[in-house]
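Let us walk through a complete example step by step. Step one is to write down the protein sequence. Step two is to encode the small molecule, copper (II) ion, as a SMILES string so that its atoms and bonds are unambiguous. Step three, shown after the inputs, is the structure prediction itself.
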Amino acid sequence: MTKIFEFSQLKAKTANSEVASDEDNKNNGYLMFGFLVFIYLLTIFCFWKYSKFLLPEAASEHGGDYDQLMLWSFVIIFIVQFITQALLHYFAFKYRGEEGKKALFYADNDRLEFIWTIIPVIVLAGLIIWGLYTWTNIMDVNEEDDPLIVELYAQQFNWTARYGGADNVLGDANVRMIDIDRANVLGLDESDPNAADDIIVKELHLPVGRKVNFKMRSQDVLHSAYMPHFRAQMNCVPGMITEFSFTPTITTAEMRQKPEVMEKVARTNAIRAERAAAGEPNSDPWEFDFILLCNKICGKSHYNMQMKIIVESEEDYQAWIESQTTFGETVTAAE
Ligand SMILES: [Cu+2]
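Step three: the predicted structure of the complex.
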């Protein structure tokens, strides 16, 4: 209906009212420049305002390689984006429409095409090969160097961890063998001799400097074990065991002394003090801790699916693990 109305009005208008005038084109050209300035200013503002939200120094052995790869990818993207945006907006201004100006017919240029193909090929191939090399190194989960074996068990909406006990071997487990009445929350096979000394906990303790092999399981849906401070993430898939391995290099106590972490804690606690003064909830002072999060939207309480991780000295870890009850002891107590 609108279209019909518009057509019926055509004759009433002056001949060229639908065609942009030189004045219109010039204004649009300047607006393009204005937009360029806007996105540059926005970039600077975001760097200034939000870089403090980035993660602190990586607390795992492979974390540094990961961060380097990420940094260089961003540096390259940033430089390319900075130059191409300037060119794009400048050309939009320079070649704006003008009365009597005709576009040049320019079929192709082999040399130009070669240049703009070969440069991205070299840069991208470099990044991809470097990325593959880093990935292969990080994902090399093996049993050399006597790693600590830890199971991470995901379910809606919490985490449970299991240590292999004195023999560092996890007993067989299957969701079908879960027996809540017998405190067998992870479905351990009670007939497996390796299961009796397993230790089931709700807080993860790791000795600094020792490699840890994580074996992940899920009870219900897809979850993802995400340990941001160690630059580690792996999906937890029902029906299979996935693995990730890393060596923690910084203890919780050391991490709390890092300037960037202290700043973050001070910032958060300033906000919490304000909330406390206003009588609002969630206003207790906060202390930094490493954390295991779920990074797959797995249901309505997904946001709160987390477990505390404590990295400590070998002695402190030994003292802690010795104070825990084994699966065998728990089951006997349940009987
Ligand atoms: Cu989850």
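Step four is interpretation. The first strand starts at residue 148 and ends at 155.
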